[in-house]
Design goal:
The complex is a heterodimer of chains A (269) and B (426). With 269 residues, chain A is mostly helical. Chain A is built from seven helices and three strands; from the N terminus they run H-H-H-H-E-E-E-H-H-H. Chain B starts with a helix and ends with a helix. The chains are: A mainly alpha (269), B alpha+beta (426).
Chain lengths: 269, 426
């Protein structure tokens, strides 16, 4: 049996204090590493939350289709989203005008940067929030916190979160948010995971991913995922609100949309 | 002064952010403006003149259609089925995918949808092809079921389907699969003019090969599949130019050759040890031939051609033979008949670029002409080009040196045996 040291009572007291503090903290304060998940199966129907996620789905489809419409790889196809390379052509022309002595490769990269800026402006100018059922409006507190500018993958294939024009570790970003849905940050992390993969492959081959054509294809792939994931989020929230929807109403709305979209995409094709 | 410094610093931060690839950006949605994109759409967007927000409205309508269709996924009445069938003809691939997943989930699709399903299966979009493969798994045609199985081997369900992906963020299984698809499309190891132009993607051939010799046990080399109806000789000629050398013969032929050479080597060694010095020169030749054949077999095995059922494909690998078994996989190409598609398959292995090949080895057999497995008749029965040398990898001079050592050893042994016989007689 070991002899008790003279310091033992003090050590015990310190340990007890630490435990008490920890217990108090865990009861009193939100966890430092658990941003709220907004998608729990047991949640009741929340029209505002559904509206928020619908708006995000619509935003991602808008961006996805913008890249698709400017894809040179798809421009010759007779089927699919109607090509409209206005942004692409404008970006290339602006790059040529602004950098007249640049090489073809440098121009392609410059055109890519200009194109990204044009897409942001196009989105800010043209995108409109979709209408939600029963007049529900998006709940902005669920969105990523103000100052968040998205995430990006740099030329070294490192991923960062853009916040207040600074760069932050992407994996942990948002973990201390108290109202923003974790799902939006996860969606952006996954988007960047796709970019990171192609970045590493390009780096191994000593190629650049930033030329405008490659960049557009890369974004199409990444936004394809953002759309699929956003649709999965909306689907889950709709299930929680499904008692309010009638199949006949849904079918009628789907037909209405189909009968507008089909002739629109076939125009000029 | 402090203000100027701060402004400069802010400018630097902003410019860094702009110069870097800023990707998944966010933007402020128009506050308080909720729009029904279908309102006035016929007049605004379907006439000769379009309003300038029609593309935006089309996107909103597509998003809503995806949402509405997913809400109808559990219905199976004839009207819903017809709606999903018409959705496979919509322009947005995401709408098409939702429709295909409905039929993958709901048993037998309508009989007039099968042709559309096959279009997606053989098309260029992996997520649509994968969904089509899940439907074709139930085809009454055995070959189609086999094709679907191959497709799903390269693109399993957890990368594309299900209610949610496995993992989130950087471990999201859907994102990881999408990243793989993007890498397969890039073919970074081959410049555009190095790729055979008259060929189209056949996604069911795609694979990722493990490459532990690269030093990273998680490393994988993407292999993208194409098919062509061009004459085989034309395709071979193109890649002979790209690699700077003729291809290796097929793995099947290389293995047969290697086995036969080993057999002969045993016989020659036995004769030499028995005192027959007339075979000494043949021993030297055999040493080089065995090494060349071994290289051919090993190269084909390195490309995992047997696992891909491509033992009848000829192949090229760039770079130095010595590096093949100690470094990462070099870029490579396999060419041969594809039994499932009945066309000529071109498989691009997106390994490291290593500069031009060293040139053909004189001791390797030429690829055998004609006689492909399963006929290979779609290439017009063009015989393979007669090669003058056949290998795109050569052994280093070490091959010649080791042959000489064997001859010397054999001669030495023969002389020792003769001396022992003389000693016994005396």
């Amino acid at each position: 049996m070991s002899k008790l040291s003279p310091d033992r009572p003090r050590k015990l007291a310190r340990t007890a204090t630490a435990l008490a503090l920890a217990l108090g903290l865990s009861l009193g304060l939100p966890s430092a590493l658990a941003a709220p998940t907004c998608l729990k199966e047991e949640n009741p129907c929340d029209p505002q939350k559904l509206c928020t996620f619908k708006g995000q789905l619509a935003e991602k489809v808008f961006l996805y289709q913008t890249y698709l419409r400017n894809s040179q790889k798809r421009s010759g196809r007779k089927q699919g989203i109607r090509y409209n390379g206005v942004l692409y052509d404008a970006s290339v022309a602006e790059a040529q005008k602004s950098f007249p002595t640049a090489s073809e490769a440098e121009l392609a990269v410059k055109a890519g940067q200009i194109f990204q800026a044009k897409v942001r402006k196009f989105a800010a100018d043209k995108f409109k929030e979709p209408a939600c059922k029963d007049g529900a409006m998006p709940n902005k507190t669920l969105l990523p916190k103000p100052g968040y500018g998205g995430m990006y993958t740099d030329e070294r294939c490192n991923v960062y979160a853009n916040y207040d024009s600074g760069e932050y570790d992407s994996e942990s970003f948002g973990s201390t948010d108290t109202t923003s849905c974790k799902e939006f940050y996860d969606r952006d992390r996954a988007h960047e995971a796709i970019h990171r993969k192609t970045c590493l492959a390009a780096k191994d081959a000593e190629k650049s991913l930033d030329a405008i054509d490659d960049m557009i294809e890369d974004e199409i792939k990444a936004y394809e995922h953002s759309v699929r994931l956003s649709a999965a989020y909306v689907k889950m929230l709709n299930i929680q609100c499904s008692a309010k929807k009638k199949p006949s109403e849904l079918q009628a709305r789907a037909k209405r949309i189909r009968d507008l979209l089909a002739p629109y995409e076939k125009k000029g094709g | 002064m402090r203000t100027i410094t701060f402004a400069l610093a802010l400018g630097c931060v902003v410019s860094v952010a702009v110069g870097a690839r800023a990707d998944s950006f966010t933007f402020e949605h128009s506050a308080g403006v909720a729009v029904d994109p279908a309102a006035d759409c016929e007049s605004d967007c379907l006439g000769a003149e379009e309003a300038d927000d029609c593309a935006a409205r089309a996107a909103l309508l597509s998003a809503e259609l995806v949402e509405v269709l997913t809400e109808l996924e559990d219905e199976s009445d004839s009207e819903t089925v017809a709606l999903f069938q018409s959705a496979t003809d919509m322009a947005d691939p995401r709408v098409q995918e939702v429709a295909l997943r409905y039929f993958a989930h709901h048993g037998e699709p309508p009989s007039d949808l099968w042709s559309r399903v096959r279009d997606f299966f053989f098309g260029p979009e992996p997520s649509l092809g994968q969904a089509a493969a899940e439907i074709l798994e139930r085809s009454s045609d055995e070959q189609e079921r086999e094709q679907a199985k191959q497709y799903l081997k390269g693109r399993p369900r957890n990368g594309y389907a299900g209610d949610f992906p496995a993992g989130t963020g950087s471990t999201d299984s859907w994102a990881l699969a999408a990243g793989n698809d993007a890498v397969l499309e890039r073919l970074d190891a081959f410049e555009p003019d190095e790729r055979f132009a008259d060929a189209e993607r056949l996604l069911l051939l795609d694979r990722f090969l493990a490459d532990p010799l690269s030093g990273d046990f998680t490393a994988q080399v993407p292999m993208a599949g194409f098919v062509t109806d061009a004459p085989r000789s034309e395709v071979e000629q193109h890649f002979t130019k790209v690699f700077g050398a003729k291809p290796y013969p097929s793995l099947e032929a290389a293995q047969k050759k290697y086995t036969a050479l080993l057999q002969e080597l045993q016989e020659v060694q036995a004769r030499l040890l028995g005192g027959d010095t007339s075979v000494a020169s043949r021993l030297g030749q055999l040493a080089n031939e065995v090494q060349a054949a071994q290289l051919a077999v090993s190269a084909g095995q390195r490309l995992d051609l047997e696992a891909m059922q491509c033992t009848d494909h000829v192949y090229w690998l760039s770079g130095n033979a010595e590096d093949l078994f100690s470094e990462a996989l070099p870029r490579a190409l396999a060419l041969g008949p594809d039994a499932l598609s009945q066309r000529t398959a071109i498989r691009y292995f997106n390994g490291e670029r290593r500069g031009p090949s060293e040139g053909p080895r004189p001791d390797t057999d030429e690829p055998e002409p004609g006689n492909d497995v399963d006929g290979g008749s779609t290439d017009g029965d063009s015989p393979r080009a007669k090669a003058d040398g056949g290998c795109s990898l050569v052994a280093s001079d070490r091959g010649g040196v080791s042959g000489a050592w064997l001859v010397l050893l054999a001669l030495g042994l023969a002389r020792a045996r003769q001396r022992r016989r003389r000693d016994r007689h005396s």
